[in-house]
From TrEMBL:
InterPro entries: N1-like (IPR000026), Ribonuclease/ribotoxin (IPR016191). The lineage of its organism: Bacteria, Bacillati, Actinomycetota, Actinomycetes, Micrococcales. This is Guanyl-specific ribonuclease Sa. Transmembrane segments: none annotated. Residues 32-80 are annotated as: Disordered. It comes from Arthrobacter nitrophenolicus.
Amino acid sequence: MRNRTLLPLLLGALAVLALVMFGGPGLLDQPSQTTTAGATTTAEATSRGTAPGPGSPSGPVAPAPAENPSGLAAIRESELPPEGRRVLALIRAGGPYQYSQDGQPFGNFERLLPRRDRGYYREYTVPTPGEPDRGARRIVAGSGGDKYYTEDHYESFTFIAEGS
């Protein structure tokens, strides 16, 4: 008899926990107001045509930008040099890359990026017009979606705020 009394209490507690964890009914109806660096609000996404419109619950939605875990200054994707934007598009597409070194692990020996396990970061060459070799510009991409730009061969980095 005691177990039958506890069952409704346990089910009620689980329901309350689910509401707390998942925001309750109507969560998906509320507009997003994300304010992290480089993030996009629902209004901004709609103005770019990347958010679902009314009556279109599964319309095209841009991938959520990675948060800036580094504390480094950010650069908007649109502020990257044209070659950097092209390399960023190639990274998203999985290649092909111009240089054989692209996609290789980046060691973060300078310790300017957040410390992560070996292999977390990969580096990609951003060609510099007029340079006879790979030049100094790179994009370093973390497996968590965070991406960084350096124009001085790892002496400094900026976080790339994608989609902006």
